[in-house]
């Protein structure tokens, strides 16, 4: 099966990190550079997983420096069981969507669409 | 020596920034400044240059453009993330892109994206700013480098990117690029003198013209360019103090007003003082003893505390904190002001050294703010620091908790103190602030502060106009002797009165100013920009107050929207918005573009951490004579029989060219550059004498004649004792103390009249004591009352 490819916009949607932050993580070697030359390259599930791990560590109050050393200790994120893993998406202040990791992997595009739509709805409400 | 060692390289690649130019127009209390940063890519691949640099915290940045070859690309303001996305997408496509982000009100990040091999780019920023004013003097300021900011290890990381990475650029001891300046100061006939305490400068009139209202003065560096390792400071002394004024203009669909309250010295706030001077105070000195305070800074700061401690009113309470990575305090809590406690404090001050590591400002302040002030007292904290911290928000939040019972005053010290922290902390806590560059005396500035501290502030200043007024700052306050500007926005069809009324309240009375309102002609575009900057600052500070609370999340969204809207409408950058300029390239998209990241290192602030302590002293004396340029001589400089020419046709002014001053007896020379340089080499100067005299005050009132005074004034203690023995008094008293105090008062009045604002509040205790004793004991010598006897004797110094 062909590996899934994500643009940087999709990676932002999926992980909740800003474009600026993802560029910074790439520049400082915290996550791998995208495939291909330059900035236009694609990202893969391994990027998504790594960024989610970072988010999870951040929620535990770890600094980026500590996270970086933890990530270096564990170079095989694929070993983490995907069963029973739920992924949290921030939609708006006070609103989250939780999706099972397996379901997300199987239905990635539609999930991205779901999150995008949910965020758009919440944004409309806020501005109205 | 290899290039790498000379600082031409950052790591193993060349530094793409080749130089910075600053062009400024100074008109009275306002300045319009253009900063040009020149880049050149000498590598064989495209680069993305990231340059973090400082600007004054009050700068309203209202223009950003990039010049590449013969093309000019104008920047637009977008919200921060949109701007980055536009920038990033442009780079992805192979276009050129230029991005300016605000990290702190005084720290900015410039990204020069996709600079092809061999290409140059010039980035221009424009800003408008109001210049700090104290009486007749304005102080124009341009920081040139960011000092390494101390980020505590236990600092929570609020963002996805570590704070250290956001505010601290890479540092080097040397960099290949430098700064050049060209400053035009308008209205030469209004100006008495211009000087730069930070750099050797040339000061010229174009074509040797005579001073007049429409003639300008041009200031440039004495050398072609200067190293970017310290703040540039230019002080302009005007012939007259600035007066209160109010002006207005219509711009597009709105009306803007500016109100300057400058004339609030002497009698203006006198009534306030009289009602409040009896209010007891708790004074806490907080002294930065981090490594970055090494060198002469710490010695002068200690001297200032010594003088202030002796000058405190009898009913005060006091304490002394010192901090670095850790902190300590002299007393567990503030103690009453008495002889025993002062005796316990003075050796402690004397033993202080800059040996406590990093600038850990938060912990001592937290310790102070967790307790209430001594009952019945208002607490005043005097914080002396270079302020090189990264956790400003944390400190501000703490300070806000003490509003109402604690006032914080700040003194920023060093070649490159954190202007944002120093100003913002004082502004937030209702206090005053001063900046002291090396070569300037800390003591005199701190003494000048003291008068403001013991005077009373007027709060809640409001300009009284009809409805629909948007005032910034929303809740300004005014301290005695300080200048304040209030900016307002209203409807385009607002009916304006001939005179504006500004009102405010102090603890015990109301205050009101009536100021004639005039229309501005020309430069109308500056008022909206200055208003927008102040309004954005108000909104940002209001957001910081509630950060972390549940209510905040809701409020933050609204505030952010408002900041973005104002920022975009008036073209002024904010922390929520960035400037982005996209340069479309015909070749874009033709191939995969690989761009390498090049972070531009900045030069380590001179003297930072005591690293180059020795060379600082040498430089001050030999290479960097501070420059004073007098356009005419104040009365106290003049000698009766010698008229001094006005040197208006000189193109260069250095210490040596200002030789007329050298003819004065050392005692009469006002301490400017020369005396500050000489004080470093150990020769007693006027300022040394003044600060020594003030340090001779006895805590109970009166001045003690010391051995040093014997040498400085030329009168021995034996002689004084003999004269005291001749004194006849009607009541028992300390005749010797009475005589020495009377003498000191006379010397201060006669020789230091021009520095009166520095010492008047300091000697008040002794002044009151002396006059009470004179009334009580009626002292006389040789049948003449003591006061007349001393005046008749005309004692002269050596």
Description:
The complex is a heterodimer of chains A (128) and B (798). Chain A is mainly alpha-helical. Chain A contains six helices and two strands; from the N terminus they run ααααββαα. Chain A has helices spanning 8-15, 19-27, 45-59, 64-73, 101-106, 108-127, and strands at residues 86-92, 95-100. Chain A has a two-stranded antiparallel ribbon with strand order 1-2. In chain A, a hairpin with a 2-residue loop joins strand 1 and strand 2 (95-100). In chain A, helix 3 (45-59) crosses helix 4 (64-73). The longest helix of chain A is centred in the last third of the chain and has 20 residues, at 108-127. Among the domains of chain B are: 3-240 and 576-603, Immunoglobulin-like, CATH 2.60.40; 696-798, no CATH class. Helix content of chain B is 29%, strand content 29%. Chain B has 21 helices and 39 strands. In chain B, helix 11 runs antiparallel to helix 12 and helix 17 packs across helix 18 (735-751). The longest helix of chain B is centred in the C-terminal third of the chain and has 21 residues, at 526-546. Chain B starts with a helix and ends in a 5-residue tail after the last helix. Classes of the chains: A mainly alpha (128), B alpha+beta (798). The interface between A and B is medium-sized, with 23 and 21 residues.
């Amino acid at each position: 099966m062909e590996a899934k490819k994500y643009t940087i916009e999709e990676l932002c949607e999926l992980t909740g990190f800003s474009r600026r932050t993802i560029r910074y993580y790439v520049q400082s070697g915290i996550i791998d550079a995208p495939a291909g030359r330059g900035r236009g390259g694609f990202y893969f599930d391994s990027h998504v997983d790594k960024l989610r791990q970072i988010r999870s560590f951040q929620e535990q109050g770890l600094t980026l420096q500590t996270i970086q050393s933890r990530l270096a200790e564990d170079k095989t994120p694929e070993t983490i069981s995907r069963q029973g893993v739920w992924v949290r998406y921030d939609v708006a202040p006070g609103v989250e969507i939780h999706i099972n990791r397996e379901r997300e992997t199987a239905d990635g595009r539609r999930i991205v669409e779901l999150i995008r739509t949910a965020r758009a709805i919440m944004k409309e409400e806020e501005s109205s | 020596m290899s290039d790498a060692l000379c600082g031409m390289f950052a790591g193993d690649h060349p530094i793409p920034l080749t130089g910075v130019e600053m062009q400024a127009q100074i008109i009275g209390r306002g300045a319009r400044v253009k900063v040009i940063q020149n880049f050149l890519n000498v590598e064989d691949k495209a680069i993305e240059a990231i340059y973090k640099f400082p600007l004054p915290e009050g700068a309203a940045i209202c223009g950003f453009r990039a010049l590449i070859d013969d093309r000019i690309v104008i920047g637009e303001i977008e919200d921060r993330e949109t701007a980055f996305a536009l920038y990033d997408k442009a780079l992805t496509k192979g276009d050129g892109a230029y991005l300016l982000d605000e990290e702190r009100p005084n720290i900015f990040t410039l990204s020069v994206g996709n600079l092809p091999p061999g290409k140059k780019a010039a980035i221009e920023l424009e800003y408008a700013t109001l210049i700090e004013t104290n009486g007749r003097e304005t102080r124009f300021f341009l920081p040139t480098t960011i000092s390494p900011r101390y980020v505590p290890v236990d600092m929570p990381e609020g963002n996805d990117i570590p704070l250290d990475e956001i505010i601290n650029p890479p540092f080097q001891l040397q960099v290949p690029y430098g700064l050049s300046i060209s400053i035009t100061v308008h209205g030469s006939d209004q100006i008495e003198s211009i000087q730069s305490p930070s750099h050797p400068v040339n000061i010229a009139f174009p074509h040797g013209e005579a001073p007049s209202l429409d003639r300008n003065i041009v200031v440039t560096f004495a050398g072609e360019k200067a190293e970017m390792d310290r703040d540039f400071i230019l002080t302009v002394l005007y012939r007259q103090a600035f007066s209160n004024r109010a002006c207005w203009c219509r711009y597009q669909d709105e009306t803007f007003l500016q109100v300057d309250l400058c004339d609030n010295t002497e009698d203006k706030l006198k009534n306030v003082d009289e009602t409040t001077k009896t209010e007891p105070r708790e004074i806490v000195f907080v002294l930065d003893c981090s490594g970055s305070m090494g060198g002469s800074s710490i010695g002068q700061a200690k001297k200032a505390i010594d003088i202030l401690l002796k000058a405190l009113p009898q009913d005060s309470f006091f304490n002394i904190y010192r901090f670095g990575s850790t902190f300590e305090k002299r007393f567990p809590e503030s103690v009453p002001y008495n002889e025993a406690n002062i005796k316990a404090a003075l050796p402690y001050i004397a033993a202080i050294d800059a040996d406590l590591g990093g600038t850990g400002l938060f912990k001592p302040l937290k310790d102070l703010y967790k307790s209430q002030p001594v009952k019945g007292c208002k607490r005043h904290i005097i914080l002396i620091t270079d302020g090189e911290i990264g956790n400003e928000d944390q400190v501000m939040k703490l300070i806000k908790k003490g509003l109402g019972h604690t006032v914080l005053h700040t003194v920023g010290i060093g070649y490159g103190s954190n202007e944002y922290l120093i100003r913002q902390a004082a502004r937030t806590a209702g206090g005053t602030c001063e900046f002291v560059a090396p070569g300037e005396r800390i003591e005199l500035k701190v003494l000048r502060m003291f008068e403001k501290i013991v005077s009373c502030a007027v709060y809640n200043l409001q300009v009284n106009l009809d409805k629909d007024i948007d005032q910034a700052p929303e809740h300004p306050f005014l301290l005695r002797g300080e200048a304040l500007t209030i900016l307002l926005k209203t409807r385009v069809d607002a009916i304006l009165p001939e005179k504006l009324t500004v009102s405010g309240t102090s603890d015990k009375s109301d205050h009101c100013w009536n100021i004639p309102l005039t229309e501005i002609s020309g430069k109308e575009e500056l008022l909206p920009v200055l208003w927008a900057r102040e309004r954005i600052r108000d909104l940002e500070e209001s957001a910081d107050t509630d950060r972390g609370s549940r209510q905040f999340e809701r409020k933050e969204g609204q505030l952010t929207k408002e900041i973005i809207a104002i920022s975009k409408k008036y073209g002024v950058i904010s922390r929520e918005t960035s400037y982005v300029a996209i340069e479309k390239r015909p070749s874009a998209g033709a191939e995969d573009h690989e761009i390498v990241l090049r972070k531009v290192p900045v030069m380590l602030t001179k003297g930072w951490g005591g690293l180059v302590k020795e060379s600082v002293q040498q430089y001050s004396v030999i290479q960097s004579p501070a420059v004073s340029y007098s356009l005419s001589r104040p009365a106290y400089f003049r000698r009766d029989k010698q008229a001094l020419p006005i040197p208006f046709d000189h193109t260069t002014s250095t210490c040596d060219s200002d030789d007329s001053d050298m003819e004065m007896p050392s005692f009469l020379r006002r301490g400017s550059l020369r005396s500050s340089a000489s004080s470093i080499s150990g020769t007693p100067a006027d300022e040394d004498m003044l600060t020594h005299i003030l340090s001779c005050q006895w805590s109970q009132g009166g001045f003690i004649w010391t051995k040093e005074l014997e040498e400085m004034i030329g009168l021995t203690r034996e002689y004084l004792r003999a004269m005291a023995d001749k004194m006849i008094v009607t009541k028992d008293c300390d005749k010797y103390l009475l005589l020495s105090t009377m003498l000191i008062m006379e010397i201060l009045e006669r020789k230091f009249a021009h520095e009166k604002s520095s010492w008047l509040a300091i000697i008040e205790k002794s002044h009151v004591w002396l006059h009470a004793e004179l009334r009580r004991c009626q002292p006389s010598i040789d049948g003449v009352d003591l006061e007349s006897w001393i005046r008749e004797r005309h004692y002269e110094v050596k």
